[in-house]
Amino acid sequence: MWTTVKGKRALKINVNDKIELVSVEGETLGFWTKEVLKEAFEKKFPGLVYVKADCRGKGVNEEVWLLP
Q: What does the pLDDT read at residue 68?
């Protein structure tokens, strides 16, 4: 997934065994394990509910499927 600033690619987010912020040049700018992020979110937002889902389509035709 790329983020853009004024229409130009700026950062890429890679999600594998860790979450990485990657520059356009391919340099890893920072990373976190899923467990570290989970603990940080639970501490800061104790009422947070994490939902995993798949989606397809766009706009009025978008479908979202919650995953176990």
A: 80
Identity of the amino acid at 1: M
Angle made by CA atoms 8, 13, 41, in degrees to the nearest 5: 125
What is each CA distance from 64 to 1, 15, 54, 58, in whole angstroms?
A: 18, 20, 6, 10
How far is 12 from 21, CA to CA, in rounded Å? 6
The total number of structural domains in the chain stands at: 1
Chain center to CA of 12: 10
pTM: predicted TM-score of the whole model, two decimal places: 0.55
- Give the DSSP letter of residue 36: H
* Block residue for tokens 């389509």: 57
How far apart are the C-alpha atoms of 14 and 31, rounded to whole Å?
Answer: 9
What is the reported pLDDT for 2?
A: 61
